[in-house]
Amino acid sequence: MEEPKTIEEPRMEEKPPERRRDDNTVYIGKKGTMGYVLAVVTQFNNGAEVVVVKARGKLISRAVDVVEIVRHRFLPNTKVQDIAISTEELTSEDGSKNKVSSIEVKIAK
Questions:
Q1: 21-62, pLDDT tens digit by residue?
Q2: What is the CATH number of the domain that holds 55?
């Protein structure tokens, strides 16, 4: 006769703490401009005093568009607190190094 099988409760595995991005930072990518505008407005509606918009390379113009749309259409009481520009050196898969411009715009209530 077989022994009765016991049912084990599934164990909750402990996950290592995730490396969180700064909650008040919006990274500009390839999505539509209005998606990022919504992300910035949502940050302010959730109580953020300062939101940082970051972009690199060809997406810098989209970051500027996002900031301007937020300031002029949605939250006219916000101001650009600081703008930081820099150049990052990235290594591609073939080993060559490329320089990519980046921008960081801080918007404050």
A1: 558 999 999 999 999 999 999 999 999 999 999 999 999 999
A2: 3.30.110.20
3 in a structural domain: no
For residues 48 and 40, what is the distance between their CA atoms, to the nearest angstrom?
Answer: 10
Domain count, the chain: 1
- β-pair partners for 52: 25, 106
The tokens for 62 are: 């989209």
Provide the residue range defining the domain that includes 103: 25-108
Measure the CA–CA gap between 28 and 32, rounded to whole angstroms. 9
pTM score over 0.85: no
Rounded Cα distance, 71 and 65, in Å:
10
